[in-house]
């Protein structure tokens, strides 16, 4: 986990997960009372809330990014904006406005030029968010931080810590199996599975 110290300070845990690796973490989020809002282009100014694992699976092919909400820490509705596309107006969720949210960016396998790769993903939250009603930035609630920490614990419990460079990643079990068959990690394509699994620094 790392914190970025800039105008958008955030806590973030990075990982390499296949879609199969994501499912136990999504289940953990649902069990904690979270709903998952997919980052999509919507035909109306109304976002969708994912409340089951099956629903998540259905939408996962359309987006990697989901915004986690919960009655425990949701203070305001998420706000939406619009853009004009050739087929008409589409709407999307404005990040860091309302909520607040925990952001979950999935990883996933993909093929390119005859090779297979795993994308990196992350779990993160911003320390502040914009309250448009009061026109000010507000601190993320303690309940959000507690939920984030519970999900971090679930990821660390089910994954292997690797440190191929300066940044720490958590390698999912299925991603590890794929790595051992020759699949590459995006950003670390030059490393073999043996190299990556040797680079296991102590826990942060």
Task: For this entry, give a set of tags.
25% helix; 204 residues; alpha+beta; 5 helices; disordered N terminus; globular; single chain; 3-stranded mixed β-sheet; 34% strand
Describe the protein.
- There is one protein chain.
- By secondary structure, this protein is of the alpha+beta class.
- It has one domain (2-198).
- The chain contains 5 helices and 15 strands.
- It has helices at residues 19-31, 53-60, 142-158, 173-180, 193-198; strands at 2-4, 10-16, 34-38, 65-70, 80-85, 88-93, 102-105, 109-112, 115-118, 120-126, 128-131, 136-139, 159-162, 169-172, 184-185.
- The strands form 4 sheets. Strands 1, 2, 3, 4, 7, 10, 13 and 14 form an 8-stranded mixed beta sheet that branches.
- The longest helix has 17 residues, at 142-158.
- The radius of gyration is 18 Å and the shape is globular.
- The model is unreliable at 1-7 (pLDDT under 50).
Total beta strands: 15
Number of continuous helical runs? 5
* Rg value: 18 Å
- Contiguous low-pLDDT stretches (5 residues minimum) are 1-7
Query: How is the main sheet built?
Result: 8 strands, mixed
Q: What global shape is seen?
A: globular
Classify the helix fraction into a percent range. Answer: 25-40%
Q: How much strand content do the residues show?
A: 25-35%
Estimated structural class: alpha+beta
Number of domains: 1
CA(first)-CA(last) distance: 7 Å
Written as H for each helix and E for each strand, in order along the chain, the element string is EEHEHEEEEEEEEEHEEHEH
Q: Summarize model confidence as the mean pLDDT.
A: 92
